[in-house]
């Protein structure tokens, strides 16, 4: 006898949001860069702790070479998917990975597929 477990509609919707966000190669690359921000973004140029607060969107923009509006839209997509968190420092927005949420999504993925 084979048992099948169905994923809940909520879990499926969550995974679809994540897959959509990661379907863009630049968004995927940014998420990978944020895994080790000191390796990919110069810590001496950071105005806040890159591990606690995140990487300034202007540094992400400089590294990608894309327009500020494009990078902001990409980061908003990653945030809606629950992959990053944002923090304002003055007029700048900083982004860091949401490791707890990523771990939950990996768990949901493991149970769903």
Mean pLDDT: 88
What sort of overall outline do the alpha carbons produce when their principal axes are compared?
globular
Number of helices: 6
Poorly predicted regions: 1-5
SS-derived structural category = alpha+beta
Q: Give the strand order of the largest sheet, numbering strands 1, 2, ... along the chain.
A: 1-3-2
Radius of gyration from the alpha-carbon trace, in angstroms: 16 Å
Give a description of the structure.
The protein is α+β, with helices and mostly antiparallel strands. Helices cover 57% and strands 12% of the residues. It is built from 6 helices and 3 strands, in the order H-H-H-E-H-H-E-E-H. A hairpin with a 2-residue loop joins strand 2 (84-89) and strand 3. The longest helix has 14 residues, at 9-22. It is globular, with a radius of gyration of 16 Å. The two termini are 19 Å apart.
């Amino acid at each position: 006898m084979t048992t099948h477990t169905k994923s809940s509609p909520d879990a499926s919707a969550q995974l679809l949001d994540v897959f959509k966000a990661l379907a863009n190669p630049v968004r995927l690359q940014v998420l990978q860069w944020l895994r080790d921000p000191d390796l990919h973004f110069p810590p001496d140029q950071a105005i806040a702790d890159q591990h606690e607060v995140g990487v300034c969107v202007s540094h992400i923009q400089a590294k990608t070479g894309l327009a500020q509006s494009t990078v902001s839209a990409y980061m908003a997509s990653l945030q809606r998917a629950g992959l990053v968190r944002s923090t304002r420092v003055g007029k700048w927005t900083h982004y860091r990975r949401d490791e707890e949420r990523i771990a939950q999504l990996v768990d949901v993925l493991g149970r769903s597929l």
